[in-house]
Design goal:
By secondary structure, the chain is α/β, with parallel strands linked by helices. It folds into three domains: about 120 residues, Rossmann fold (3-Layer(aba) Sandwich); about 220 residues, tm_1862 like domain (pyruvate-formate lyase- activating enzyme, Alpha-Beta Horseshoe); about 55 residues, OB fold (Dihydrolipoamide Acetyltransferase, E2P). Helices cover about 35% and strands about 25% of the residues. The chain is built from twelve helices and 20 strands. The strands form five sheets. A six-stranded parallel beta sheet has the order 6-9-12-13-14-15. A five-stranded parallel beta sheet has the order 2-1-3-4-5, sandwiched between helices. Strands 16-17-18-20-19 form a five-stranded mixed beta barrel. Helix 11 packs parallel to helix 12. The protein is globular and about 60 Å long. The protein starts with a strand and ends with a strand. The model has no long low-confidence stretch (mean pLDDT about 95).
Length: about 425
């Protein structure tokens, strides 16, 4: 049996695709080695990201590390679309697979090992052509419902490497989820590039959520990263269903309307606040996490102050702070008044510090409340760890009969090192 090791960088969409690929290789008799750093696997698959310069750098580092081991290296993901062919096309031990053909990586590797390798383009690709993963690297099961994006935000390279928006057939999604639930998964995470724009033959994102919630099984549904669209009141009402987790990663990007306009974002800070208020009117402790970019060309101190102001007002559970990274081919790359790197570093630190403060305040608000803990790992410290429905990390003492991948109702007693300490009710 051959050994294969995977490294995934970037978004949940990549995680979903890696899980599906790894499950396929296991099914066909391969052994998966989860310790990428120390692995001596015959095959390495690096699922790359190109959202920032730092992402490119990390991707190249992992690729070069695998190449030095002398193994067969498969490079896929968004960095493969942009740069990998240029960097690695002359290396006979490297196969570069674009996103469209990612689902065929097993067949491509099998052909290569059998001496029958032909061009990647000779295989039929399908961005939704992944089978349900029986085993994953996580307790939660990630399910892809959509790919691509039509927004073309001024700073973003994703539409160029993932292509235009396309939605997966709803019947395939429901079948995928039912299969994952049969495999024993208890939390389903929906992912895609721009999932709020899901629409397949008249079935909207809201319609899809309703269909998933109707599945007769004990599970939790979580929505991953989503754009701040004009959510209907009926969509917000869906979150009264206990199956639908009260947490959304809602992408703010900036609290300044002038910056949002230059970003080509189709909302204002006031629109964003209105969305948050809609949800928290129904569920006061609804958890909003977010992405914020600092240092877009022309961002002033006043613009950055507006971002800090809205972040404090919303009290995000967590903020992913990104320094603006120039991406060749995007509109922002051609803008005047590129922000000095020193200023970007300063603003990024201020935002990260604020995120830690807001996160601590949010966690404190759960003391005395109940959460439904989905257990993940039992550690040697005598505690079992997992997440509550609000996507807050919780631990409780283990006891006879406690198991991973089970729901337990817990009362939150205190906060310790950014983790909620719970006691089973």
């Amino acid at each position: 049996m051959k050994t294969i090791s995977f490294k995934t960088l970037g978004c949940r969409l990549n995680l979903y695709e890696t899980d599906a690929l790894a499950s396929k290789f296991r099914e066909k008799g391969f052994v998966t080695d989860g310790d990428f750093e120390n692995s001596n696997a015959e095959i390495f698959v690096i699922n790359t990201c190109t959202i920032t310069n730092q992402s490119d750098k990390k991707s190249r580092e992992y690729i070069n590390r695998a190449i030095r081991k002398g193994s067969l290296v498969v490079v896929t993901g968004c960095m493969a679309e942009q740069y990998a062919k240029k960097y690695f096309s002359n290396n006979t031990n490297v196969i570069v697979v674009d996103n469209k053909h990612k689902n065929r990586i097993f067949d491509i590797v099998e052909a290569h090992l059998g001496g029958e390798f032909s061009a990647v383009e000779n295989f039929d690709g399908d961005v939704f052509g992944f089978e349900a993963a029986k085993e994953t690297f996580h307790t939660r099961s990630i399910v892809k419902i959509q790919d691509g994006c039509n927004n073309f935000c001024s700073y973003c390279i994703v539409p160029y490497v993932r292509g235009r928006a396309v939605s997966r057939p709803s019947e395939d999604i429901l079948k995928n989820i039912k299969t994952e639930l049969e495999y024993g998964f208890k939390e389903i995470v929906l992912t895609g590039v721009n999932i709020s724009k899901y629409n397949y033959e008249g079935i909207s994102f809201e319609d899809l959520i309703k269909k998933i919630l109707e599945i007769d099984s004990d599970f939790r549904l979580r929505i991953a990263s989503i754009e701040p669209d004009d959510f209907s009141d009926s969509f917000v009402e869906l979150f009264k269903n206990p199956k639908l987790a009260p947490h959304i990663h809602l992408c703010l990007q900036s609290g300044s309307n002038s910056v949002l306009k230059r970003m080509h974002r189709h909302y204002t800070s006031e629109d964003f606040l209105e969305i948050v208020e809609k949800f928290r009117k129904i569920i006061p402790d609804f958890n909003f996490t977010t992405d914020i970019i600092v240092g877009l060309p022309g961002e002033t101190d006043e613009d950055f102050a507006d971002t800090l102001k809205i972040a404090k007002k919303i009290c995000f559970g967590h903020i992913h702070a990104f320094k603006y990274s120039r991406r060749s081919g995007t509109l922002a790359d051609k803008m005047d008044n590129q922000t000095d790197e020193k200023i970007k570093n300063q603003r990024s630190k201020i935002l990260r510090d604020l995120s830690e403060k807001l996160s601590a305040e949010y966690l404190q608000s759960f003391i005395g409340k109940r959460q439904t803990l989905l257990t993940e790992t039992i550690e040697n410290d005598g505690f079992i760890y997992g997440y509550g429905e609000n996507y807050v990390r919780i631990k409780m003492k283990t006891f006879d009969g406690v198991k991973a991948n089970e729901f337990y109702s817990v009362k939150i007693l205190k906060v310790e090192n950014d983790v909620l300490i719970g006691q089973m009710i």
